[in-house]
Amino acid sequence: MNTNTKIVLIAILCLGIVISCKNKVAESENSTDSVTMQSTDSTNVIASSSNLEPSKSNRKCIRTADIKFKVKNVPQSTYAIENAANRFGGFVTNSNLQSTISNRTVTKISQDSTLETTKYTVENNITLRVPNTRMDTVIKIISRQIDFLEYRIIKADEVTFRMLSNQLAQNRMSSHEKRMEKAIDTKGKKINDIIAAEDNLNSKKEQNDNSKLNNLSLQDQVNFSTITLQIYQSETIKQELIAN
Question: Of 82, 127, 137, 178, which has the fewest beta carbons less than 10 angstroms from its beta carbon?
């Protein structure tokens, strides 16, 4: 093999090595771009998912519902509604099931009997307390009993700042009570001064207790929603044959 042939072979080998290195670099860059794109897409998906998550709120709301509707059978619907409240952790605070007579007539059929005809309407006023998180579920179950809906009113009264105001007032009065108690124990000398200070202290304690009770009442209304129902059915006619 002469010198020229060796030079040509060496040149071809070097060119092959250069081309191979360029291909590897290109593959590496493509792989990096692919990983970067996948990472960007994943970030977008996570961001989108986080945007879809419901925001947590510290708002405190008293939710109430007032519904009036007609049913096919008031006693049966009453039992179904009461069972629904109990099923989801609620309870009945009022249930006034009654019949209202609109007309009553007595017709003589024979010498020995008369026919008594009574027209009446059965109705019930029900008040339920259910957990706030279960209110919508209970209302949906109650809606199965509706034959004709007259109205449905749902309200949410926010009491967050009212409860915070009560708590701050409670803290202020508690601090004032401690200072007054300390002053009475260390500086009280005359009986009249002590009595006046004690009366003032008792008044502050009463205000503090009222703030506590008010907050407890509000918290109870927040935890358990109130559902007020007025249900009735079509007028019913009852006829009874009475022997004279």
Answer: 178
